[in-house]
Amino acid sequence: MLSEELRNKYQLVVGLEVHAQLLTESKMFAADANQYGQSPNTLISVITLGHPGTLPKVNKKAVEFAVKMGLACDSEITRYNIFSRKNYFYPDLPKGYQITQDKGPICIGGVVPIELADGTEKVIRLNRVHMEEDAGKSMHLVGEVDTLVDFNRAGTPLVEIVTEPDIRTPEEAYAFLTEIKKLVKYLDICDGNMEEGSLRCDANVSVMLKGASEYGKKVEVKNMNSFRNVARAIEHEHERIIGLLEAGVEVISETRTFDAATGTTASMRTKEDLNDYRYFPEPDLSPVVISEEWLHSIQATMPALPRELYRKFVDVYGLPALDAGVLSDAKEIALWFEEICSKTNNYKAASNWMMGPVKSYLNEQVLHIDDFPIKPTILAELIALVDAGKVSFTAASQKIYPELLKATEESSLAIAQRLNLIQESDEGSLKPIVESVLAENGSKVAEYKSGKKGLMGMFMGEVMKKSKGKADPKVATKILTELLEN
Ligand code: ADP
Ligand code: MG
Predict the structure, then answer these.
(1) What is the average per-residue pLDDT within 417-424?
(2) Counting atoms of ligand 1 from 1, which one is nearest the CA of 206?
(3) Distance from the CA of 335 to the center of ligand 1, in angstroms?
């Protein structure tokens, strides 16, 4: 653990490189299916394997997905895109090179606002988002002497999202990744699954003296398979590099690998044995030109973004930040909530239903909101019944809601009538009940009038009993107060 003193002496600086696998049906440059979890080496055409004489072809959907990411981050979209070959030898790279964007990324700059623990917002600038293809996968199976290789993943479309070195703590890195995952899922361009490798992150870490005008030498850490492990790896490097600086040892630019079991990193390669990738323009692909028309058609498919919905929920619906955060976290939940809100103005009640009974049902049943048995309009009707005083909230949540979960054709009102839950909220018929309760409790009324206001609860209890639980508490309280105070 670092001492407070050392923590205050040095500044941590982090930049992230996030690879997101795009959810296209086919690969980046070939028609092979883009699927995870298939039998090894079954999704490998001659194009993916780079056989001589084969020609790659750009996947239009993948380009559109990359543009969507850029639009969501306010990046500048490059109109004239060329691909390059990055040459290197590795067993999982069937062609001997990777097709990527070297000089001109499809999205330049941009921003990703993140929310910090204290509720404040910080903007992380993007350097770029570029398109490339994934490599295959080497497999080191238990009990096997040989390393096996599965090329199914080779040619999977990727975007690489590169931040500026704007991140200052492991928590900010975690928050940034959370935001990116939320974004790609909202955009439907990546499933955001880190365990399956759909989202992968390398962390560039350096440390400098506080107030220094130049960043320190950075190391790049790889092989973290969860957001938490990215944060752990950064904190480990933070402490390790400060240790080096304090001991007067020079920090060297290197690539390190993270070991989740120990929470430590180890050197993989240094800059000295840096590859010369001999980049050159891919001769088999013509440039991808994004016309004004194409860009507009992509713009037209952009969904509402999580932070836009969050702001709407807070500013327009007047919801607490906590509610707005939970409800805008996943697109399908946010859209479902929006549908209730198109049918009711009681947004807080709608939020309470979503955050309480609906969410717990989904969790218990391990259900997706699309398979939730109650439609948003039906829930809006139930909210209206409670608001009109026809049924109590308790009756709605404990009696009617469980009936609705059975997905019958019956309306909330019909259920309320069948179960005899309609409240007496008519003043005219409630007043005689209240009067008779007061008449029967003359001495208590006198005590109340002499100051024992706490007796109100007891009167309410009696009214409830006499009305067989059907008195609308709001109306009953109003009549009780009127009669007792006069
Ligand atoms: P390289 O040429 O080594 O690939 P880049 O300038 O392309 O370096 O940056 C790669 C990533 O490293 C980016 O995410 C960037 O923000 C980050 N980065 C650059 N310099 C530093 C630094 N001194 N400390 C931490 N991160 C850095
Ligand atoms: Mg670089």
Answers:
(1) 84
(2) 24
(3) 37
Instruction: Provide the whole-model pTM.
Output: 0.86
Place of tokens 């204290």: 118
In a domain, 185, yes or no: yes
Residues with CB under 6 A from ligand 1: 13-17, 127, 162-165, 204-206, 215, 218
Tell whether the model's pLDDT for residue 274 goes beyond 70.
no
Helix (H, G, I), strand (E, B) or coil at 257: strand
- Please write the tens of the pLDDT for every residue from 360-409: 999 999 999 999 999 999 999 999 999 988 888 888 999 999 999 997 78
DSSP 3-state of 401: helix
Has residue 299 been placed in a domain?
no
Number of domains in the chain: 3
The helix (H) or strand (E) run that includes residue 359 is helix 359-365
Residue 271 one-letter amino acid: K
Rounded distance from Cα 207 to ligand 1 centre (Å):
13
Q: Using the 8-state DSSP alphabet, how is residue 453 labeled?
A: G
From first CA to last CA, the distance across the chain in angstroms is 69
Concatenated DSSP letters of 51-72: -TT------HHHHHHHHHHHHH
* Residue-number span of the structural domain to which 477 is assigned: 427-485
